[in-house]
Amino acid sequence: MLERLREKRGDEGFTLIELLIVIVILAILATVVVFAVGNSTKNAAVSSCNADAKSVETAVEAYRAETGTFPASLAALTSSTVTQGSTVGPWLRSTPGTNNYTVSIDTSGNVFVNGTNYDTAASNPCQSASG
């Protein structure tokens, strides 16, 4: 069958079937790329949220180790404190969070992402916060 197509075609160019096959292959490749890029963007947002929550947890523990108490608010982690005659802190450069999520703490040192406890939640609160 291919021999007949070659004989009919000659040297004039591609057949319609060959062009359609190339177009279908390109469409499949484009679909794969679009889904891969979409998933990596969501994964990056979730990773950013997790990193922010972990850095706040670390800062809360460092604050408690140096001052003996938990910070009253997230803002307390971004400022210096005088304790026992010496200045300590800041424990964070800036308060984390984006338009997709907010990170907060309570007076017991628990970290929350959009109001859900980061450590005790049934599922990772960053999964739903970054979607």
Topology diagram in text:
Elements: H1 2-9, H2 16-67, E1 81-83, E2 86-88, E3 103-105, E4 111-113, E5 116-117, H3 125-129
Antiparallel strand pairs: 1-2, 3-4, 4-5
- C-alpha geometry: rod-shaped
Query: What proportion of the residues is helical, as a percent range?
Result: 40-55%
The separation of the N and C termini measures 52 Å
Q: How many E-type strands? A: 5
Enumerate the spans where pLDDT stays under 50 for 5 or more consecutive residues: none
Structural class: mainly alpha
Q: Which H/E pattern describes the elements?
A: HHEEEEEH
Strand line-up in the sheet with most strands: 3-4-5
Number of domains: 1
Structure write-up:
The protein has helices at residues 2-9, 16-67, 125-129, and strands at residues 81-83, 86-88, 103-105, 111-113, 116-117. It is mainly alpha-helical. It has one domain. The strands form 2 sheets. It has a 3-stranded antiparallel beta sheet. The two termini are 52 Å apart. The model has no long low-confidence stretch (mean pLDDT 83).
